[in-house]
Amino acid sequence: MPFCPRWPGLIRSAATTIAAFxxxxxxxxxxxxxxxxxxxxxxxxxxxxxxxLGRKDGECVTLGNLxxxxxxxxxxxxxxxxxxxxxxxxxxxxxxRSESTALWNLALAFDQLGERDxxxxxxxxxxxxxxxxxxxxxxxxxxxxEEWRGE
Length: 151
Fold this sequence. Notes:
mainly alpha
């Protein structure tokens, strides 16, 4: 196939369109239609697109979704690595809602590992942000904490 001088612009345009769709809506389609191992392949590609575009927000969401896919495969240590990367980027870009999500993901992962004290620590940090931003997810985090503490 011969080189077309418009390809770099077209590829960037396509990547931008894909990036706009994938972080939120696209992952739900992947969850419905694909095994977590297949989701991981798509999500890794998506992460590369976001990195190429310099889109930290999309990269952050992708890392969280990769963590969830690994958690679904019961490879929780690998999931934690992705959630920690997600948390680092959320703090870098100042996205409090995504930060609370990353903290909550870490809480769930540590709970799945049976490390309840560590799970509580992450959930408490998540709850502080959920309350501060008046997130509708706050009661769910509070209820989980009460259950984990035996209250």
